[in-house]
C-alpha cells in the first residue's frame, strides 16, 4: 500500500466539496482524472472510501480514517512548504550572533529590536558563551554573525564594515590626568586599569596602545558591567578605556572626565563577520543596514560626526 499526499488532498477535497465535479475544480483536475485516481486508491487499499449513492458523496468508515490522516498531515506539509519558501526567499532563517566586543551589547539590542519587526520568522539569539571563540564558531556554523574589531583572512568568511569608533580614557573628574586632554601610554603605567573580562588581545587599550609601547598598568581589574566600571572610576578606584559611543550617554556626568589616547586619538573599526554565502540573504542585508544606522543615530544623538 502506498498512500501519497495527492490521495489525501483528493479525499479531503471530495469531502469538503461534496462531490467529484467541484473537488476536481479545486484540485485543478478533470473530473475523469479525479475519478480514476480515487478508484485506483480504493483498489490499492482494498475497500471503498466513498458512498457514491449518497448526495452529497459521503465517506465510508475507511474514508473517514483517511480524512483524519489528511487533516493531521496536510497542515504540517503546508507549514513545512511555507517555511521552505520563506528560507528560499530569505524571510525565514536563523541569526545567531557572537560578540568579540563586550561593550557591544548596548548597541546591538536596539538593532535586534528593530530587526524582529521586519523579520519575525528569523530565529534570533546572542551566544554570549562564544565571545572568546567567536570566529572559529562562525566557521563551525555555530553562529551566523560575529561582531569583531579584528578582521582576519579566513576561508569563506567576509568582514563587512559597520562603524568607526574612538577608544577613550575615562577618569574621575578630579583625577590628575583629567586636565591633560590626552594621555600617552606611560601615563597609564601608574594607574589601576579597569577592563571588561576579555583576553588582552581583544582589548583596544592593550592591543593598540599599551602593549606596542611596552607599558604595563600598575594593576588590572576585570569588571563585567559598564555602569559598575564607571561608578568605580568616579570614586577614584581606577581608570578605564571604552568606545566613545559607550561613553556618549555619560557625557554630562560631572564626576567623569574623558581623554583621547594619544595626541590625535585612536580610531578603530567594528566589523560584521559572516559566511560569504549568507551575505546575499535579505535578512542579513537588513541587519547590517540597521547596525550601521544605529551607530549613525547614536553619534548624532551625542553630537558627534558619524563615521562609517
TrEMBL record:
GO terms for biological process: methionine biosynthetic process. PROSITE patterns: HTH_LYSR. The keyword RNA-binding does not apply. GO terms for cellular component: cytosol. Keywords: Amino-acid biosynthesis, Cytoplasm, DNA-binding, Methionine biosynthesis, Transcription, Transcription regulation. One of its GO terms (molecular function) is DNA-binding transcription factor activity. It is found in: Cytoplasm. InterPro entries: HTH-type_LysR_regulators, LysR_HTH_N, LysR_subst-bd, MetR_PBP2, WH-like_DNA-bd_sf, WH_DNA-bd_sf. Belongs to the LysR transcriptional regulatory family. This is HTH-type transcriptional regulator MetR. It comes from Paracoccus jeotgali.
Amino acid at each position: 500500500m502506498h498512500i501519497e499526499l495527492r490521495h489525501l488532498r483528493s479525499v479531503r477535497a471530495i469531502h469538503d466539496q461534496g462531490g467529484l465535479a467541484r473537488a476536481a475544480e479545486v484540485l485543478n483536475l478533470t473530473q475523469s482524472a479525479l475519478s480514476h485516481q480515487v478508484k485506483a486508491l480504493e483498489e490499492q487499499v482494498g475497500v471503498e472510501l466513498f458512498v457514491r449513492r449518497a448526495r452529497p458523496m459521503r465517506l465510508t468508515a475507511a474514508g473517514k480514517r483517511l480524512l483524519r490522516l489528511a487533516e493531521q498531515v496536510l497542515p504540517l506539509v503546508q507549514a513545512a512548504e511555507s517555511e521552505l519558501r520563506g528560507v528560499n526567499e530569505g524571510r525565514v532563517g536563523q541569526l545567531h550572533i557572537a560578540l568579540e566586543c563586550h561593550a557591544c551589547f548596548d548597541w546591538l539590542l536596539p538593532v535586534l529590536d528593530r530587526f524582529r519587526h521586519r523579520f519575525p520568522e528569523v530565529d534570533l539569539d546572542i551566544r554570549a558563551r562564544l565571545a572568546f571563540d567567536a570566529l572559529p564558531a562562525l566557521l563551525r556554523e555555530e553562529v551566523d554573525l560575529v561582531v569583531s574589531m579584528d578582521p582576519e583572512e579566513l576561508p569563506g568568511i567576509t568582514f563587512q564594515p559597520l562603524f568607526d569608533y574612538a577608544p577613550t580614557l575615562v577618569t574621575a573628574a578630579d583625577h590628575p590626568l583629567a586636565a591633560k586632554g590626552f594621555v600617552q601610554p606611560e601615563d597609564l603605567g601608574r594607574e589601576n586599569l579597569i577592563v571588561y573580562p576579555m583576553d588582552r588581545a581583544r582589548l583596544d587599550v592593550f592591543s593598540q596602545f599599551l602593549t606596542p609601547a611596552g607599558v604595563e598598568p600598575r594593576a588590572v581589574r576585570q569588571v563585567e558591567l559598564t555602569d559598575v566600571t564607571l561608578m568605580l572610576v568616579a570614586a577614584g578606584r581606577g581608570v578605564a578605556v571604552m568606545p566613545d559611543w559607550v561613553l556618549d550617554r555619560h557625557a554630562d556626568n560631572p564626576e567623569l572626565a574623558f581623554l583621547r589616547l594619544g595626541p590625535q586619538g585612536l580610531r578603530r573599526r567594528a566589523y560584521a563577520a559572516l559566511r560569504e554565502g549568507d551575505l546575499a540573504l535579505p535578512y542579513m542585508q537588513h541587519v547590517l543596514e540597521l547596525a550601521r544606522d544605529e551607530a549613525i543615530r547614536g553619534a548624532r544623538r551625542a553630537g558627534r560626526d558619524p563615521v562609517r
